[in-house]
Write a structure and sequence with these properties.
This protein is of the alpha+beta class. It folds into two domains: 246 residues, Metallo-beta-lactamase, Chain A (4-Layer Sandwich); 43 residues, no CATH class. 30% of the residues lie in helices and 26% in strands. The strands form three sheets. A nine-stranded mixed β-sheet has the order 1-2-3-4-5-6-7-8-9. Strands 10-11-12-13-14 form a five-stranded mixed β-sheet, covered by helices on one side. β4 and β5 form a beta hairpin. It is globular, with a radius of gyration of 20 Å. The two termini are 24 Å apart. Bound molecules: zinc ion. The site of zinc ion has 6 residues, from α3 and β14.
Length: 398
């Protein structure tokens, strides 16, 4: 077992990793636009309970599932104190899930989708519920959760202080980079949220408990629990019905999952950051996935073997492309372009950005002065550097 300080094994990705990444994203964009162009169904929602791109095995039996012209899947669950609406993007755009907690007289929205068309469709769906939107929460600072915020710019948008700061610092760079990949499907503006403190707030007479979770899938993550509804909105600590995008360190991430698991009796409705709503059983699946990934990293000889191992271990999970996001980082030796292999120290190019790497011994190196774009180069949609946000440790391959 790898020691915690050596994990995750961010060996330096070379130019080939990035070109793989851009090819993948271009493919994704093409699929999304093709889907949008071929949609001539005039109805805004059609019943497709048994179909859809996103696995629905984990949804509670009482859930109603339909789909939107945008390609998003809508899951509606009725609880005692609230109706829970979850809008999940197609797997081709990461199966991002955003949520609407509908109480008697108001709506609370959580996360804003990645692509603007999906964000606008979520806004249209919320407006159709015909109740005032009290506020919008953003769970964490990864671009697939806040880049749709333009569609909610007229509303009160909140996030934990550190999340708001990260969005403020990284938003422009994220827009520039994602527009290069996705064009007009990425909004040109974003909302910097107002800071909210962890604690309990009341909206329409219903308590919302706000908790801060550190260093799981993201540096900082907001978890929202609604006790009267038996619902917990987990952000990206939970991926439901889909493979995980391994954007954080397995040990603190697993700890966060165990903390959530301990509340299973209170919160039977689990509203994830990716994938369709689940039950508390999803926690064990995520915990096992992370443990299996650690084993596979130690035993697999290349990215293909790693991916095959994960698919074999979790044959029922969708979004296999989630694994592709990290294999170039975990197994940079797969690179066929020898010129792209970085040295142990010196300058390394990430796209057009050149950064300095200083060797720090024992096969490790430190990337100094990491900016958001460089940090993002490690993770496609926001694989963050550990804790301080200013430097990250990588394993030199040269
Ligand atoms: Zn995410």
């Amino acid at each position: 077992m790898r020691s915690p300080s050596r994990y995750p094994r961010h060996r330096t990705p070379g130019g080939t990793s990035l070109s793989i990444r851009f090819r993948l994203l271009t493919l994704v964009a093409a699929v999304v636009f093709a889907a949008a162009c071929s949609s001539d169904d005039a109805d805004s929602a059609t019943d497709t309970s048994a179909e859809g791109d996103t696995p629905a095995e984990n949804v509670t039996e009482e859930a109603t599932v339909s789909s939107r012209d945008s390609g998003m899947t809508v899951t509606v669950q009725q609880t005692e104190a609230a109706t829970l609406h979850t809008l999940t993007a197609p797997e081709e755009v990461f199966a991002n899930s955003t949520h609407i907690i509908e109480t008697e007289n108001s709506l609370v929205l959580i996360d804003t989708q990645f692509l603007l068309p999906n964000a606008l469709d979520m806004r249209a769906y919320a407006d159709d519920l015909d109740k005032p939107i009290d506020r919008v929460f953003i769970t964490h600072a990864h671009p697939d959760h806040f880049l749709g915020s333009e569609a909610f710019a007229d509303l009160d948008v909140y996030a934990l202080a550190d999340v708001a700061d990260e969005i403020s610092a990284n938003g422009e760079a994220e827009i520039a980079e994602k527009q290069a990949d996705f064009g007009d499907a990425i909004a040109s503006t974003f909302v910097t949220p107002e800071a909210v403190e962890p604690g309990t707030i009341e909206v329409d007479g219903v308590a919302f408990e706000l908790a801060e979770v550190l260093d799981a899938e993201a540096h900082v993550q907001l978890v929202i629990s609604v006790p009267d509804a038996g619902a917990v909105v987990t952000g990206d600590i939970v991926y439901s019905g889909v493979h995980l995008i391994m954007a954080g360190q397995p040990e603190p991430w697993t700890a966060a999952l165990n903390d959530l698991k301990a509340t299973s009796d209170q919160y039977p409705f689990v509203l994830p950051g990716h994938g369709v709503p689940g039950t508390p059983e999803v926690y064990d699946t995520n915990i096992e996935w992370l443990a299996t990934a650690q084993e596979q990293i130690d035993t697999a000889t290349d990215g293909a073997e790693f991916k095959a191992g994960m698919i074999a271990a979790f044959p029922d999970l969708g979004m296999e492309a989630a694994i592709d996001f990290v294999t170039p980082l975990l197994f940079p030796d797969d690179d066929t372009d020898a010129d792209a292999a970085p040295a142990a120290a010196g300058e390394v190019a990430f796209g057009e950005t050149v950064v300095n790497i200083t060797a720090v011994g024992d096969g490790m190196a430190e990337l100094v002065g990491s900016d958001p774009v460089v940090a993002d180069a490690f993770g496609v949609i926001g694989l963050i550097p550990p804790s301080d946000g200013n430097s990250m440790t990588i394993t030199a391959t040269g």
